[in-house]
Each structure stands twice: as structure tokens, then as C-alpha cells.
Amino acid sequence: SLTRGGMEEETGASILSKSLKLQGVNYMFGIVGIPVFEIASAAQAAGIKYVGMRNEQAASYAASLIGYLTGRPAVCLVVSGPGLVHALAGLSNAKENCWPMLVVGGSCEEDQEGMGAFQELPQVEASRPYCKYAARPNSVERIPFYVEKAVRMSIYGRPGPCYLDMASNLISNKSMREKIRSIPFCPLPPKPFANRDQLKEAIDLLCYAERPLVIVGKGAAYSGAEGEINRLVTDCKLPFLPTPMGKGVISDASPYNVSSARSRALQEADVILLLGARLNWILHFGFPPRFSPTVKLIQVDICAEEIGNNIHPTVALVGDVDAVTYQINEELATKPGKFIFNSNSPWWARLFEKVKQNLEATKGLTQDQSIPMNYYVALNEIQQLLPKDCILVSEGSNTMDISRTMLHSYLPRHRLDAGTFGTMGVGLGFVTAAALWCQDYAPTKRVVAVQGDSAFGFSGMEVETICRYKLPVIIIILNNNGIFFGIDEESFKSIPAKDLPLRAPSTSLLPNSHYEKIMEAFGGKGYFVTTPSELHDSLQMALQDIHNPALINVVIDPAAQKKPQDFTWLTSSKL
Ligand code: ADP
Q1: Taken in order 197, 200, 202, 205, is the CA torsion positive or negative?
Q2: How would you class 534 by CB atoms within 10 Å of its CB: exposed for 0-12, middle for 13-18, buried for 19 or more?
Q3: Nearest to 452 by CA among 399, 408, 513
Q4: Which residues, including other chains, have CB under 8 Å from residue 148's CB and lie 6 or more apart?
Q5: Pocket test for ligand 1, best of 188, 222, 282 (most atoms within 8 A of CB)
Q6: Is the bond preceding 242 in cis, omega lying within 30 degrees of 0?
Q7: CB of residue 302 inside a 6 A radius of ligand 1
Q8: How remote is the C-alpha of 326 from its chain's centroid?
Q9: In a 10 Å sphere around its CB, with 0-12 CB exposed, 13-18 middle and 19+ buried, how is residue 194 labelled?
């Protein structure tokens, strides 16, 4: 703060940063430039950790992950125009994932608006479709009001991102301290309970079910419902199915996990309790043939507008998953013995039969001795070594799909992927944020990204960020020379250079690229591995080194495929 005539004055950048800190914002990811330099340094002065990244996309993914892990938003700080355009990637991803975050964008001087100012863009309008709230503070004095509102909007109701536009004159203008309207801390939102009548209907339906199924989504993970959902599933012996990011709310190792019988469980369940998951493409819209046409659905969601989307539920429980599951547990406790689902029932027998069949099919693939390895062999090696409590990011089409079954999650909010929006390239942003968070709250926890070579490429230069901040993340690239699949080096070399644009498959990337050298370039440890034992040894070494980042580049057979599926993952053509 500065003084003028004895009166204390403060810049917009400083007021903004102090307000953010007061509202519980502890992390800021971004790229500085005109006009936001001052915001980054004011944020550091206010005690907010600032991480300078190499592209706003990765910075925006990083900020959104903090929202998911902590329930309070982090900031993505961007410059005007192109900076904000790049951050729309993370804004839209956070919106689709229902994760809180706050983008703060610098913009041109208010009195140059419309004149063709440097990097001028209608930023509030550009962000609005992806935001719950997008606004431009209209005076330095009112900045605290906008900050509190943006933070509150991002975490109350269905969580989501918000945008604040900071005109450059507002960033550097000063205001007398006593004129600044201070706004108190916004507490976490209350957890609403479901309506009593509907709760009773839901209990009746559950008690009537012959083939019940619980589906656990990332809304359940976000709400911290792991205690209540574990109690429900274990006490009642209910089969459950996690969605990709619902994995770990209940440990994958639970005997009630029927992921290995996913298709059968979805197809044959007669009552489904849907906990914080949308019936979107990830759950095949709730439609036959993936679901029974007569399935009765109990839908639990905090967002009333989500109820009935694609399928009308038999019972709707609008509320917080944690609070509503508590209600369900308390109601069921008043009916001792009445709803303990029998593990000798025909339903469990059918599910177990399929679990066994599918595990056998996968076993064959993990025992394949060929070099280059297939995905199953590589992931099997990785699964043997990964610490159970690590935060895992998994992305890239084959890598993500296959690791969903091969890599197990034991803790909630520990598995991250391309999410609802199917955004490939989130990995390095996510591991940067996760590692930073671990430094503060879980220093012994490891952060690992298992990515395809294509997914890595979207934000590869963030390796420099990771090395600069000494974040001991482990990046494992399952490198099959392409997007979905590639071609081998010999075939690629046989194409004359001038013919490449016509003849190189659109899916191919440069075969056998040495991505590990990117890590070495910035002082981290790189490994190039071609056999299961090399993979084992390098991952073990990377895990032992708790101070330095590592990148393990794993050569995968470019023709390696997924095991045959009963249904393909994306079913839109079959609707
Ligand atoms: P998944 O990808 O795991 O299927 P989705 O992202 O599709 O999950 O769905 C998450 C749902 O959870 C959203 O509809 C969102 O409104 C809801 N949700 C988010 N937070 C909560 C909460 N605290 N309680 C209940 N529902 C929540």
C-alpha cells in the first residue's frame, strides 16, 4: 500500500489479490504479460502461490483440478485476447466436469474499448457460455464484491467456473483504503438433504429391487461422500459400478465392485441408484440396449435441472450426495435385516460369472511375451508398482480406456482423466496442480501421469514448468507412434518426404520419438524402455527418487488394440 497526503492507497491488483486470498484462493496458475504482471506479483505478496506455466490451456486445467481436489477454486491468470482464448479450453472443461475455478483475465483500458486496442476481445461475452458467472468489476472499490460473488457462484449449487475481467486501468488504479467495500469470507456451501416423501419412495424401491446397482460418479467424489457410500454398499452388500472418475470413492478392491461385469450390470439391473453421475455419453444416455428398458432409476443430484435429462427417474432426490446417502443409510438402519442384499442371490451369481470371464480374457493379454509390448503388459507392470495412494492421471484414447480396467484406484479423487468433455492434453496441467497440492497437504504422496504419446504432445512444454518448480511427478508415456494407433518406424521411413502429407496415416506421429529427452533437457530423469523388465526397473527408480521428476517413454506395439468389447465405448451411432 502507498500513501497520499497521509491516506493509505491500494492498487486494483493488490485489492484483487487480497480479496482472492480472503476468499480462500491459495493457488494461481497462469502466464503473465501486459496487463497482468502486477496481479501475479500482488498475489504472491498476498500469500497466493503463483505457478507460471507455458500455455494457458495447461494453466486452466491446473486451476480447475485444484477446485476438484479442494472444493474451492484456484485462479487461472491470463492476458487479454489470445491468452483468454487459450484458457477457454480449461473453462469449458471445468464447466463440463462441474468443477469450480476462476479465470482472471486482463483486458484493455476501459477508455480504449471498441477502438481496436491491443489484444482487444469481448472477453466477458467470450467466457460466458462456459461460466456460471462472468463479469467485469466496474470500480476498484467494488473488486472485493465481484471476487466473493465469483467464488460463491463457483462452489454453490452445481459447481462450475467463473470469469472476472480486469480492465488494465482498474489493475493499476489506486483507491483510498477506507473506500474499499470489504466483503466477508464465503463459507463452503451447506449440504442440502432430499425431500422426505421422495426419500421414502426411494427406500421402498430399493427394498423391492431384485437386481439393484449403485452407480458412483465424480459428483459423489466431489461431495466427499465416500464414508456414507462405503457404508451403504458394505452394509447392504450392494453391487456398485464407478464411472471413470468415480473410481476410488469405494476402493476398486471392494468385493462389491462389478466393474469387470460392467455391461451385464448395466443391462440387467432393475433398480439403479445413480449417485452424482449424469446419464450422458459416459453412461450411454441411460438408453437400451446398454440399460434395461424397464429399469427404475433413483437419481441423486445437487442440480435440479439435471433430473430427468435423457431418462425420467422413478424417484428424484435433489440434494448433496453425501447428505442424501446419509439419509438413505439412516432410513435403512430402521429396517434391520430387511435390505441386506443376499450375496448368494442369482443376481450376484450372474455378476460374478461375468467378472470371472472378463478377468480371464484380460489375463491372456497381460501374458503376451511379444516386444514391442501391448498395453495390457505395460499397464500390468505399472499396476504392480504404483503406490496405492498415488494421484493418477490417465489420458489418451487407448491408454485411458485400458488403464481404467488395469490400474486400480483405492482412494476418492485420486483418478483423473479426460473427463466429461473428453479433453485430451489435460495431463501435464493436472499433475502440476496435483503435485503442488501434495507439497502442501500430502508430501509423501506421488503424482503419476500415464499418457499416450498424442496426449503428452498437447502440453509437452509443461515439462519445463514441472522441472522449474521441482515437482517430483512421474510421467509415463505409452508410446504407440500415433493417435489411436501409429505405424512402425520402417513403414514410416519407406514413405518419401514429399509424399508424407499424402501417404502418412493421419493417425501417425513420428515413430519411436525420444520424448524422455525433453525431460532430460530440463534436468529431470528420462528413461526409454522397450521391455517389461526395463519398465519395471525404471519405474522403481523413479518412485525411489522423491525429489526429481521423471519421464518414462514406453515403446508400445503401434498395432496394439483393446480387447474385444461387448459394446464400443461411444455408442452414438447405435442410438
Ligand atoms: P461422471 O462423469 O462421473 O459420470 P458427471 O460429471 O456426469 O459424473 O456428473 C456429476 C454430477 O454430480 C453432476 O450432475 C453434478 O450436478 C452432480 N454433483 C456435483 N456435486 C454434487 C454434490 N455435492 N451432490 C450431488 N450431486 C453433485
Answers
A1: negative
A2: middle
A3: 399
A4: 19, 23, 183, 184, 186
A5: 222
A6: no
A7: yes
A8: 25
A9: buried
Nearest residue CA, atom 9 of ligand 1? 277
Q: In terms of Cα–Cα distance, which of 431, 425, 455, 457 is closest to 445?
A: 431
Pocket test for ligand 1, best of 216, 218, 328, 423 (most atoms within 8 A of CB): 218
Total residues found in the chain within this entry: 575
Q: Please enumerate in sequence order all residues whose Cβ is within 8 A of that of 6, keeping only pairs 6 or more positions apart, or say none.
A: none
Q: Which of 253, 251, 284 is nearest to 266 (CA)?
A: 284
CA atoms within 13 A on the CB side of 117: 18
**pLDDT tens profile 7-56:** 789 999 999 999 999 999 999 999 999 899 999 999 999 999 999 999 99
C-alpha grid cell, residue 384: 504392480
The answer to whether 373 and 531 are in contact (CB under 8 A) is: yes
Strands laid side by side in the 2-4 sheet: 2-4, 7-11, 174-176
Q: What is the DSSP string of 448-477?
A: EEEEEHHHHHHTTTHHHHHHHTT---EEEE
Under 8 Å between Cβ of 226 and 412: yes
ipTM > 0.95 for the complex:
yes
Q: Is the shortest distance between the CB of 245 and ligand 1 below 6 Å?
A: yes
State the pTM of this model: 0.96
Say if residue 522 is exposed, middle or buried (CB neighbours under 10 Å; 0-12, 13-18, 19+): middle
Give the chain's largest Cα–Cα span.
84
Alpha helices by DSSP H, listed for 46-142, are: 56-70, 82-97, 123-127
CA 312 to chain centre: 27
Query: In this predicted model, what pLDDT tens digit does every residue of 117-140 receive, in sequence order?
Result: 999 999 999 999 999 999 999 999
Tell me which residue has cell 434391520.
336
Distances (CA, A) of 82 to 40, 126, 165, 214: 18, 12, 14, 44
Q: Cα(412) to centroid of ligand 1, in Å?
A: 14
Ligand 1 atom closest to residue 219's alpha carbon, by position in its atom list? 12
Q: How far apart are CA 126 and CA 491, in angstroms?
A: 45
Amino acid identity, position 510: L
